[in-house]
Amino acid sequence: MPTYNIGFCEKLIEAARYVFEQEMESVDAQRTVLYLSRLACEIILKALLEKAGRPITEIRKHNHNLSSLLRDVDKCKVRVEVVKNFCRWTSATRLRAITVDSRFSNATVGTFLTAEERGSSKYPNEIRYGSSIEDYPPGLVLKTAALVMEWSKTHWEDIKLQSTENGLVK
């Protein structure tokens, strides 16, 4: 049985979506959506790494660092259809480039998962505690979690660690 469960993450996203749709006026509601969305992203990234073959002891070393987890997922590869009925292996860095909101020039999954590097509140503690939160709008962070979930389902059966020989990805 896997340690990290994406089914659990789906429920976290559902809960965040419910709060988002019911009440976004209060800081507590915004905090809840941000926390649940980022928690879902953390567990999804850990589940992907586990599925790819990364040892649990290595995955746990990331703690709650979404940027670090994403960098480790970048070291994986997935199969994509290049043209109809023709697939090839490519870097999982493609996850970073998924557009979250086309109204903004850099609203990508990578941007939202590495938000702390640009001064966003540190997940999880600065989102759970404190008088103010510095983060992207909760709706965009929620959409990010949903897109990461969708990508993980698409590549669940084919994600694996990249092996390199002479600097070439195999």
Describe the fold and architecture.
The protein is mainly alpha-helical and 170 residues long. The protein has seven helices and five strands. The chain has helices at 6-22, 27-52, 56-60, 66-74, 109-113, 125-128, 138-155, and strands at 76-83, 86-91, 160-161, 164-165, 168-169. The strands form two sheets. The chain has a three-stranded antiparallel β-sheet with strand order 2-1-3. Strand 4 and strand 5 form a beta hairpin. The longest helix is centred in the first third of the chain and has 26 residues, at 27-52. The two termini are 28 Å apart. The relative contact order is 0.18. The model is unreliable at 165-170 (pLDDT under 50).
Which helices and strands occur, and which strands form pairs?
Layout: H1 6-22, H2 27-52, H3 56-60, H4 66-74, E1 76-83, E2 86-91, H5 109-113, H6 125-128, H7 138-155, E3 160-161, E4 164-165, E5 168-169
Antiparallel strand pairs: 1-2, 1-3, 4-5
Features:
170 residues; mainly alpha; three-stranded antiparallel sheet; two-stranded antiparallel sheet
